[in-house]
């Protein structure tokens, strides 16, 4: 009987984790709560794009929040946070994930389409090409 080395076990664990990760995202639905997580690069980049309110004619995080049916009182809370150096886009997406855990990336992309933010859509489709089709 041969003994398995720690290096072999590590490789098996890595392969098993990769398979588990792949299988967890094989359905047609990618949930916002699972893929746009706090601290993720995707959320950071979305925030940079959508937090800007100084570009005339370009819709921003407030328009996205409206499309996602964020209540006005919650929206006002997030507006106050923009002056405190927090990302209101991150707050909107986190609120969405917490309140509506079955929201998919497709739902988010559709809201972004309605506010004509193809740049933000491209960020999502670059990282999750199979999620939005």
Mind explaining what this structure looks like?
The protein is mainly α. The chain has a single domain, classed as Death Domain, Fas (Orthogonal Bundle). It has eight helices and no strands. The chain has helices at 6-24, 32-35, 41-50, 61-67, 72-82, 88-99, 105-114, 118-127. The longest helix has 19 residues, at 6-24. It is globular, with a radius of gyration of 19 Å. It starts with 5 loop residues before the first helix and ends in a 6-residue tail after the last helix.
For the residues shown, what is the average pLDDT? 81
Give the biggest beta sheet: none
Tally of domains? 1
**Termini separation (Å)?**
50 Å
- Model regions low in confidence, pLDDT < 50 over at least 5 residues: 8-27
CATH architecture: Orthogonal Bundle
Class by SSE composition: mainly alpha
Rg estimate, integer Å? 19 Å
Helical residue percent?
55-70%
Assign an overall shape: globular
CATH class: Mainly Alpha
Instruction: Note the beta-strand portion.
Output: under 5%
